[in-house]
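Hi R.,

As promised on Friday, here is the backbone we talked about, encoded as C-alpha cells. Could you run it through your design pipeline when you get a chance and send me back a sequence?
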C-alpha cells in the first residue's frame, strides 16, 4: 500500500465526543445514505459503540438512517472484527475460556510449596499471573525474555518466583497447544494484526474511522497508524491538546503521569507530527483547556507560574470544588447535586468515579427519593441474594452445621425448601430461640436435631434440610475432593433450599450466577481436587470481578460511570467524585510475580503509566460546562491526601478569590440539614410506674443488688417478663467455667473425705467436660485446675483443723418481710456453702472465679448478697440449718493464677470501729425493708441506672432503656 500523509484529527476535551463524531461523519457522508452505510467506525469498547449509535439518533434529528458499521477494538471476536469480507484471522485457534484458563493456572500455582492446598490463594495468584501473561503478550514481549532477568540481583523470594515462572514459561505453552487454544490477549492481537495486514495488502474502498482510542496497546496503535494512512481513512483522537509547544511535548515524553503522555507516544509510534493533528471541531472552552494545560504541565515547566497573567473568567465558570469532612457527607452532597439536576427538564447528570464504595454510598442516598441510578459497574455478584445463598450453604457445610452459619443460611430471604416462605422462616426462628441458644450443640445435623428434640415439629422439619445438605457435608469430611463434585453438591443443595432452580436463577443476578455455575462446572476439571475447607473462600475468589447490571428500572438521566465508561460520554452536570490519592489516581498495583525493577528490566511499561491514563480521564471529564470536583478529607476515619490534580490547581490558583469562592459548597450544609429534625427534644430516661399488683413480691439476694443499682432491669425482667437470649454458639466463657468450678468444689466438700488434691483435680476436669476439648480452653485452664485443686485442698484442711464443719452447700433459704403496703415480700438466697464454726456461730462462703466485691461496697449496701444471706441464716431461713448468729462472711476466690486462690474474709469498720457481721446483716435487712416499702408507692418509678457511677458493666436491658440516647444528655436522676 502506497502511504499518503496521515489524516489525524482530535475532538477537543469538553466537546461531547460521540455527538461530535456522529455529526462530523454525517456532514462528510450523510448526503448519500448508501455512502453512510458503507462507513466503518472502530471504537475502543462495546459501550462506546452503543453511545455512538445513540448519538447518530440524536444528531440525525430523528430521520431514518442507515448507520455505519460500528465495531469495538477492545473486545475482539470474529463476528465483530469483520474488517474484511473473509474475516482476517479466522483460522486462528480459539481463545481459552477465561475460567478454564484461571483454574488451569491455579493448578500450576498450587505447585508452589507456599500455596499448596490453599486453593483460594492459588486462584487469586493465578488471576495475577494471567494478567502478567496478558501484559507480556499485549506489549509484544515473550515469556522467554525471563531468561534475561538475572535472579542474583534480586531478593531471595524474587529469585524463587523467577524459578517458578520458568516452570510456567515452559509448561503453559504446552498446555495451550494440547488444548488447541490461545491466550485471549494473544488472539486479540493476532486478529488486529491480521486485519491490519489484510488492509495493508488490499486497502478498503470505503471510509474507515478509528476514533476514541489512545493506542495504549501496541497492536491497536499499529492499526491506528494504518487507518490514519488509508486513502479513505482517518484517526480521531480523544482530547489531544493541539496547543502544546515543542518543549512541552518533549517533557511529556518522559512524564508517564501526564494526561497527554499516551497520545504523544502514539503519535511518535505512528510517525505523526503533533502539529499535523487537526481539530475535528473547535474547542468548547479554550480558557479551561489552557488552565489544565498549565496546571498539569510537567514539573520542569512550572517555574513561570508566579508571572502568569490572571486566569480568564471562562476557565473557572461552571467549575466547583466540594471538599466534605467524611465520605458519607461527600456521598450525600453528590446525591443532592444529582437530585437537583432532575429539577431542570431534560438535564442529565453523571458521577464519574473509580471509587466503588463512594458509588454505592451515592446510590444508597438517592434511594431516599426512590431514585435508582444506572451504575455502569453494576453490583458485585458476590453481594446479590442468589450468590450469597450459595456462599452461605458452603459456609454452613464447612462449619458442620454450627448454629451461626446454619441460621444465617436458613434465614436468607431466598430460603424456603419445600415450605411456604413464611412458614419456613417461622420454623427457623423457633430453632434459633428455642433450641440453639447457649452452648454449641454436637456437630452436624444430628447435634442440631438433638438440641431441638424436645420442641414440637422441629426435629421433623430439619429432616429434609439435612437430607438436602448431606452430600455436600459428606464431601466436607474428606481431605480433598474434586472441585466439580463440590460445586455440583453445593448447587443442588442451594437449589433445593431456594425452592427450585426457577427461584434461585431468577432475574439478572440469578442469570449471572447460573452462567458462572455452568462455566465453573465445565472448567472445574482444570483445577482438580481441592481442600473442602477452602471451598467457601474459593467461591468468593471465583466471584471476584463478576458484576450484575440491571437491564431496566434505572433513571434515564442519571448515571454513575467508571473512568473507562466515561471517556466518550457527556452529561450536562459532571461530578468527579473521590478525588483522593489512592482512589483517583489509584495506587499502582503490586505485582506478586515481578517487582518494579524486574518489570522494567523485562520491558514491561511502568505501573505509573496508568496514572497518565487516569489524568487524561480527569481532564476529559473536567472540561464539561458544569463540573463539580469532590473529595472527602477523611475516609473510614483515616485522613486523606487530595488528588495530585487538585493540589496542582490549588497551587496555581492559591491567591485567586474566584477559585476560593468555587470551593464553597452549599450542598454540604443542605446535607447536614436534610436529616436534622426541626425540633430537638432530648430523650429522658425511662421512669415506668407499674401498679403495685404488677411489682415483684419475691426476689433473690443476687437480684436485690440489681434492684439497688438498676431498678429498670428488675422492671423489665419481672414486670415485662423479658429475658435476654443466650448467645448463639456460646464460647466457654466465664459463666460456664465458674459453674463448672462451683459444682466441683460443692461435690468435693459434700463428700466430707480427707482433702485429696488428685481427687479434686479429677472432679474439676470432669465438670469442665467437653469444654476442655477446645484447644484454647485446654491449654489455658488445664494447668490452672491442678493449681486450684492443690490450693483448695490445703485451704479445706486448714478449716477442718480449726474445727469448722460444713453443714450445707448450694442450699436455698427464704426470709419473709412482713408488713409492707404491697403485702409480704419474700427474699430468697442460695448459699454456696454454710459452715458451723467451733464457737457455734455460722460462716457463709461464696465461691468466686472472677472479681470479688470490696468490703466498702458490701458495707454501703451495693453488694448485699452475703449480708442478706447472713440475715436469712440468723433467722433460721435455711432448711436444716439451725438459727445462729453469723460471724464470718468470706469470698473464696479461685482463679488458678498466682496465687491460685484467696480467702477474702470481710472485716467491717465504720469510723475506725469494728462493726460485727451480725450488725451489718441486720442493717442490710433493714435497708431492704425500706427499699421494699419505697417501691410499694405506685408513684416511685423503676429508673434506669439512677447511679451510673456504681455500674461498671452493660446491662441486659440498657438497649431497651435507650441508655445511649439519654445518658449523654444527663437524662438520668
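Update: got your reply. Pasting your designed sequence below so it's all in one thread:
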Amino acid at each position: 500500500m502506497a502511504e499518503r500523509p496521515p489524516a489525524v484529527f482530535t475532538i477537543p476535551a469538553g466537546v461531547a465526543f460521540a455527538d461530535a463524531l456522529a455529526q462530523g461523519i454525517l456532514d462528510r457522508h450523510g448526503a448519500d445514505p448508501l455512502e453512510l452505510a458503507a462507513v466503518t467506525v472502530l471504537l475502543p469498547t462495546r459501550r462506546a459503540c452503543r453511545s455512538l449509535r445513540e448519538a447518530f439518533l440524536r444528531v440525525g434529528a430523528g430521520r431514518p438512517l442507515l448507520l455505519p458499521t460500528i465495531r469495538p477494538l477492545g473486545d475482539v471476536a470474529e463476528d465483530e472484527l469483520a474488517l474484511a469480507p473473509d474475516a482476517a484471522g479466522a483460522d486462528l485457534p480459539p481463545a481459552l475460556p477465561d475460567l478454564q484458563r484461571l483454574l488451569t493456572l491455579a493448578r500450576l500455582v498450587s505447585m508452589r510449596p507456599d500455596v499448596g492446598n490453599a486453593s483460594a490463594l492459588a486462584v487469586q495468584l493465578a488471576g495475577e499471573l494471567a494478567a502478567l501473561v496478558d501484559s507480556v503478550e499485549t506489549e509484544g514481549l515473550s515469556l522467554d525474555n525471563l531468561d534475561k532477568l538475572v535472579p542474583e540481583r534480586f531478593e531471595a523470594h524474587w529469585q524463587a518466583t523467577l524459578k517458578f515462572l520458568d516452570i510456567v514459561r515452559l509448561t503453559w505453552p504446552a498446555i495451550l497447544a494440547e488444548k488447541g487454544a490461545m491466550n485471549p490477549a494473544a488472539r486479540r492481537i493476532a486478529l488486529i494484526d491480521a486485519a491490519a495486514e489484510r488492509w495493508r495488502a488490499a486497502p478498503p474502498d470505503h471510509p474507515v474511522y478509528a476514533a476514541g482510542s489512545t493506542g495504549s496497546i501496541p497492536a491497536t496503535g499499529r492499526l491506528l497508524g494504518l487507518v490514519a494512512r488509508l486513502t479513505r481513512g482517518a484517526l480521531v483522537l480523544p482530547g489531544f491538546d493541539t496547543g502544546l509547544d515543542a518543549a512541552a511535548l518533549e517533557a511529556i515524553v518522559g512524564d508517564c503521569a501526564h494526561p497527554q503522555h499516551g497520545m504523544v507516544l502514539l503519535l511518535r509510534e505512528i510517525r505523526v507530527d503533533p502539529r499535523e493533528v487537526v481539530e475535528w471541531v473547535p474547542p468548547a472552552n479554550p480558557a479551561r483547556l489552557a488552565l489544565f494545560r498549565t496546571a498539569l504541565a510537567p514539573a520542569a515547566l512550572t517555574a513561570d507560574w508566579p508571572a502568569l497573567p490572571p486566569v480568564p473568567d471562562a476557565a473557572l465558570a461552571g467549575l466547583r470544588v466540594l471538599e466534605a469532612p467524611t465520605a458519607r457527607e461527600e456521598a450525600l452532597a453528590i446525591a443532592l447535586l444529582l437530585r437537583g439536576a432532575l429539577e431542570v427538564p431534560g438535564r442529565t447528570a453523571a458521577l464519574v468515579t473509580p471509587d466503588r464504595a463512594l458509588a454505592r454510598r451515592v446510590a444508597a442516598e438517592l434511594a431516599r427519593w426512590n431514585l435508582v441510578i444506572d451504575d455502569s459497574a453494576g453490583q458485585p455478584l458476590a453481594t446479590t441474594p442468589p450468590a450469597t445463598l450459595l456462599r452461605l450453604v458452603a459456609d454452613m457445610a464447612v462449619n458442620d452445621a454450627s448454629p451461626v452459619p446454619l441460621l444465617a443460611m436458613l434465614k436468607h430471604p431466598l430460603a424456603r425448601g419445600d415450605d411456604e416462605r413464611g412458614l419456613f422462616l417461622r420454623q427457623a426462628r423457633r430453632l434459633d430461640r428455642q433450641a440453639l441458644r447457649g452452648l454449641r450443640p454436637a456437630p452436624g445435623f444430628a447435634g442440631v436435631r438433638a438440641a431441638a428434640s424436645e420442641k414440637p415439629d422441629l426435629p421433623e422439619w430439619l429432616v429434609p434440610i439435612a437430607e438436602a445438605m448431606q452430600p455436600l457435608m459428606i464431601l466436607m469430611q474428606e481431605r480433598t475432593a474434586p472441585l466439580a463434585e463440590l460445586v455440583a453438591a453445593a448447587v443442588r443443595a442451594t437449589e433445593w433450599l431456594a425452592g427450585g432452580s426457577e427461584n434461585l436463577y431468577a432475574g439478572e443476578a440469578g442469570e449471572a450466577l447460573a452462567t458462572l455455575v455452568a462455566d465453573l462446572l465445565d472448567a472445574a476439571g482444570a483445577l482438580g481436587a481441592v481442600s473442602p475447607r477452602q471451598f467457601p473462600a474459593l467461591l468468593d475468589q471465583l466471584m471476584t470481578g463478576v458484576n450484575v447490571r440491571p437491564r431496566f428500572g434505572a433513571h434515564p438521566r442519571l448515571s454513575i460511570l467508571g473512568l473507562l465508561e466515561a471517556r466518550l460520554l457527556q452529561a450536562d452536570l459532571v461530578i468527579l467524585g473521590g478525588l483522593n490519592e489512592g482512589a483517583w489516581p489509584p495506587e499502582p498495583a503490586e505485582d506478586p510475580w515481578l517487582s518494579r525493577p524486574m518489570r522494567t528490566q523485562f520491558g514491561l511499561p511502568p505501573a505509573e503509566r496508568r496514572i497518565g491514563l487516569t489524568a487524561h480521564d480527569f481532564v476529559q471529564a473536567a472540561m464539561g460546562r458544569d463540573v463539580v470536583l469532590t473529595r472527602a478529607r477523611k475516609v473510614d476515619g483515616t485522613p486523606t491526601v487530595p488528588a495530585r490534580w487538585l493540589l496542582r490547581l490549588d497551587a496555581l490558583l492559591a491567591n485567586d478569590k474566584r477559585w476560593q469562592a468555587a470551593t464553597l459548597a452549599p450542598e454540604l450544609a443542605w446535607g447536614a440539614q436534610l436529616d436534622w429534625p426541626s425540633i430537638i427534644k432530648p430523650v429522658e430516661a425511662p421512669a415506668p410506674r407499674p401498679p403495685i399488683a404488677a411489682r415483684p413480691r419475691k426476689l433473690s439476694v443476687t437480684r436485690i443488688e440489681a434492684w439497688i443499682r438498676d431498678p429498670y432491669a428488675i422492671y423489665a425482667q419481672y414486670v415485662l417478663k423479658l429475658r435476654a437470649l443466650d448467645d448463639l454458639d456460646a464460647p466457654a466463657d466465664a459463666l460456664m467455667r465458674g459453674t463448672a468450678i462451683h459444682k466441683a468444689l460443692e461435690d468435693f466438700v459434700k463428700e466430707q473425705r480427707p482433702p485429696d488434691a488428685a481427687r479434686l483435680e479429677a472432679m474439676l476436669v470432669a465438670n469442665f467436660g467437653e469444654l476442655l476439648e477446645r484447644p484454647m480452653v485446654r491449654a489455658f485452664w488445664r494447668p490452672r485446675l491442678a493449681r486450684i485443686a492443690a490450693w483448695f485442698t490445703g485451704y479445706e484442711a486448714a478449716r477442718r483443723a480449726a474445727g469448722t464443719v460444713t453443714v450445707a452447700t448450694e442450699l436455698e433459704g427464704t426470709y419473709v418481710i412482713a408488713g409492707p403496703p404491697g403485702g409480704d415480700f419474700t427474699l430468697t438466697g442460695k448459699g454456696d456453702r454454710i459452715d458451723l464454726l467451733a464457737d457455734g456461730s455460722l460462716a457463709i462462703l461464696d465461691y468466686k472465679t472472677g472479681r470479688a466485691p470490696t468490703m466498702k461496697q458490701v458495707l454501703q449496701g451495693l453488694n448485699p448478697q452475703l449480708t442478706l444471706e447472713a440475715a436469712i441464716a440468723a433467722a433460721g431461713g435455711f432448711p436444716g440449718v439451725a438459727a445462729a448468729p453469723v460471724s464470718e462472711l468470706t469470698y473464696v476466690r479461685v482463679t488458678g493464677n498466682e496465687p491460685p486462690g484467696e480467702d477474702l474474709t470481710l472485716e467491717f469498720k465504720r469510723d475506725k470501729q469494728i462493726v460485727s457481721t451480725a450488725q451489718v446483716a441486720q442493717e442490710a435487712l433493714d435497708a431492704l425493708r425500706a427499699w421494699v416499702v419505697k417501691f410499694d408507692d405506685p408513684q416511685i418509678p423503676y429508673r434506669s441506672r439512677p447511679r451510673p457511677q456504681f455500674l461498671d458493666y452493660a446491662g441486659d436491658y440498657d438497649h431497651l432503656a435507650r441508655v445511649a440516647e439519654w445518658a449523654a444528655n444527663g437524662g438520668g436522676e
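One thing I noticed while checking it: The radius of gyration is 38 Å.

Thanks again,
M.
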